[in-house]
Design brief:
binds S-adenosylmethionine; 374 residues; alpha/beta
Amino acid sequence: MSNRHPFHSLCPYFAMFPEEFVEHQVLTYTTPGDVVFDPFCGRGTTVFESLLHGRPSYGVDINPVAACIAGAKAEAPSLQSIFRRINELEESFTSDPILSVAPSPFFEACYERNTLAEILFLREHLQWRHDQVDRFIAALTLGVLHGESHRSDYCLSNRMPRTISTKPDYSIRWWAERGLQPPRRRVFDVLRNTATFRFRAPSAEIRGMVRQADARDSAASFPEICGKVRLVVTSPPYLDTTDYAEDQWLRLWFLGGAPFPELRKNPDDRHTRIDRYWQFLCEAWAGVIPLLSDHAVIVVRIGGAKLTKDDLFRGVTQSLRDAAESDHGRSVQPVHEGVTSSIRPREVRAFRPATSRANVEHDFAYELSYCPAA
Ligand SMILES: C[S@@+](CC[C@H](N)C(=O)[O-])C[C@H]1O[C@@H](n2cnc3c(N)ncnc32)[C@H](O)[C@@H]1O
């Protein structure tokens, strides 16, 4: 893993692909120049790994955290422009510090006073939706916003997991019981250091693009690549596992969201009824299929606590066939009978213990073509 590109670990994200999985699919099903797409792109592993292999690559995700991180990797600015902007932000902060008010007692316990003022300033001033440099700085900030600050001088928060944001009341209690105080971090220095660290390997030579959108609107979000996508490598939210908005609430707050966890913000993140789940996937495929070239391949990594490999294979195959049927009758042929792998222990722990005992996931691949195989 020593030659892992440093952008891959910019910010952790649930159920993220190992990049070797994406690399294998890209090398198996495409040649340089072929277009790759991911309608549930998360932190952008498919998009960025494909770009590293010279495949133009695009993605959508409904979650702003995903769109920010994946977008930052897909269209990375130069390190010089990032430094210039951090210096400029620091200068305006120093000359005109805003009066910062902690949004709630949680923030006072989570961040040291001066550290919080710098974070609030960045939250206010970074135009991450409109500017690539600001988006990269926002993604860097998301990567250090919370974490194990007793182990890393880069984590800005009181002690927290780096993967998920713990709930406010629970966190306050946990810190109080242990007498833990938030550390003073000089946020602009941390950002310069982490930017230097991330750029120790050159970025991808070609640029991709990520938009914040519903998978159902994939084709509408990228009309410029309709009919051109050769490969889709994706992993939809699993049945009854996590709620991405709730578990990422602090990062969502930094990007402009509410200063508390919002439950069920995106209903697709946690379907509990199987019929609705397959319906959702069918609608998502229907949004993606117009992007595909003839003989395109879709690779789906999927799991689910209560579903066997056969259940999942049948469900994915049928949802794809239903969607493909209505697009000029494309045929859907499985390419192999599915590959099963274990979910990494850290990821299993991250799933909600009460509802999920998923510890394996399955990869299914399909070829979609206009001429049914003989
Ligand atoms: C299993 S994760 C994908 C992780 C990704 N493979 C990675 O390496 O980071 C599923 C993603 O689907 C997104 N999602 C859920 N509902 C969606 C929808 N309707 N449209 C687009 N994205 C959606 C979630 O925000 C989450 O990022």
